[in-house]
Amino acid sequence: MDKAIILTNGLLATEDAKTAHGLIRESNRYAIAGLVDALHAGRDAGEILDGHYRNIPVFATVAEAVTAVQATYCIVGVATSGGIFPGALLDEVKEAIQLGLSVVNGLHDLLSDREDIVALAKLNGITLTDVRKPKKMKELHFWSGDILSLTTTIVAVLGTDCGLGKRTTTRFLMHACNTAGIKAEMIYTGQTGWLQGSKYGFVLDATPNDFVSGELEHAIVSCAKETGAKILFIEGQAALRNPSGPCGAEILISGCAKSVVLLHAPKREHYDFKPALGKIHSLASEIELVEKYGSKVIAIALNTEHCNLEEAEAFQKKYQEEFGIPVLLPLEKGVSTLVPVFASLVNNSKVLQ
Which of 113, 134, 286, 287 has the fewest CB atoms lying closer than 10 Å? Predict the structure, then answer.
């Protein structure tokens, strides 16, 4: 894999750096060799993220990082609200280009739309990759119904809000199944999934609405047929009832996901932390809504932001008693306790139609 550095422009310890967070945890497309964030320079990125040392040094400047690790690529590691380049991040991108690094950008703010950046890239002989650049119309797929002939078990990983760790939990679940001998794959639906190296999926929020269902179906059918996976985990986006970006119905209906692992943050009160967006609906209400779509919540996974371990375990016990289904603490205790549930689903799978 080619070496890459990540730019986070002082946002490493915030939710806006979730792209960087995913790549720090796991990257199968690029070898992450360093990170640029002046606010956290001199530390290890893994220790900043979750206390685990990962040998990914944080540098104050792009020049320092390039000198130290000799990377080939530079990755924009933030996913800001609205997808616009924050602060001086664009200046760091320009510096990286001048130092000979090709740039991979996951923001909606496309580098290929900026004439000065395109000219600078051409001058320095490097490439620009905009992960969220929409596909050409001829490359898009419309929903066909082919998915209805599959016998593959399909599980959606949804959340009661944005930024709860749906992608991270999806990868944990996939790895747990593979470790247990159940062949599993992940269908990515965001730019970070692609950056981490997932082969099957699409960037949902860069896809025209008419083709979201078809792109999802195409990814699922292609993955099932080409890999022979017994179970597919679909990475959810946003939340069913987040008014700034309601999403998930396509995954349940068009993606034929009859089983759901639902993420929830017990101490989060408002969608996106913004009172103007309204209060997050209760777990009971969300589970009921999922059931109205014809699917079933088979487990709850907790995002334990602002909780100590004792509080997290108390919420875990409370929800298990209330709903009678497994409740996971993915970061604290992993997800392997759910593997027998998935094994049972696989053993009882049938044609989806």
Answer: 113
Alpha-carbon gap, residue 40 to 133, rounded angstroms:
30
Q: What fold characterizes domain 2-130?
A: Rossmann fold (3.40.50)
* Model pLDDT for residues 173-210, shown as the tens digit of each residue: 999 999 999 999 999 999 999 999 999 999 999 999 99
Q: Does domain 139-347 have CATH number 3.40.1620.10?
A: no
Task: Tell me what pLDDT residue 81 has.
Answer: 79
Q: What are phi and psi of 325, to 5 degrees?
A: -130, 160
| pLDDT classification of 351: cutoffs 50, 70, 90 | low
pLDDT for position 88: 92
Separation CA 37–CA 62 (nearest Å) = 9
> Do the Cβ atoms of 301 and 261 come closer than 8 Å?
yes
For the chain, where do the domains classified as CATH 3.40.50.720 start and end? 2-130
Helix axis angle, 18-25 to 166-179, nearest 10° = 20
Is 233 a residue whose pLDDT tops 70? yes
Burial class (CB in 10 A: 0-12, 13-18, 19+), 197: middle
Average pLDDT over residues 309-314: 98
Cα torsion 64, 68, 70, 71: sign: negative
